Amino acid sequence: MHTRIETLGRDEYIASIATIDDSQSRRFADQALAWWDRHFSWSTQGCDVLVDEDDSHLCYIFSKTDRYNEYLTVYNLFTPQDERRNGYAQELLGLIVTRSLQHHVRRITFSSVSDSLDFYLALGFVFWGLNDIGDYYCDLPIPAQGLGGFEEMIRTLDVEGLIGKKLEKIYAKVHDNEIKLTPTQLLRYENDRLKLGSKCSFETLSTLKENSCT
After folding, report:
1. Is the pTM of this model over 0.85?
2. N or C: which end of the chain has fewer CB within 10 A?
3. Do the domain assignments include residue 89?
4. Domains identified in the chain, total number
């Protein structure tokens, strides 16, 4: 199936998500709209959508590249319930990463809720810890091979290579946030840490931070 990316303005996005029948998917789409309205201008960046040859909208992503072309930040990536399990989220994210490479963007950052960890782990991503709202924080170089290169990059680069010059920034994002968790959140966090295993590198990050201060 041939697919392409289109960028939707606010009115186009609202018209698109109005066709979503699943209530949970629609609720998430509405939340993404409200969040983007609060934080960014639609005149500078809209929502990218994966479109098939029938002009059906399959998957949505809200992302932004900073003005220095240093970071691609992914804010929301979602596939309506009826279109899931077709690989659309991976395809759309891959296209966005490739587009960013074409503009010489060097790093990617995003935060993942617990329920999305399996998706990102399968793509090779690693996480540094929890951000201030309890989501898992990722900040990595973008490999020249694009999305398909993350797994190999993680195997070949050590933690210092992955962090680069971003030690202070990454550490500030995740330091001591686990102590703010509620008992319910803490239980889920402990279960997630078992799933993450070596894909969560907070201890190594903390050691590097301590050594940098001595």
Report:
1. yes
2. C
3. no
4. 1
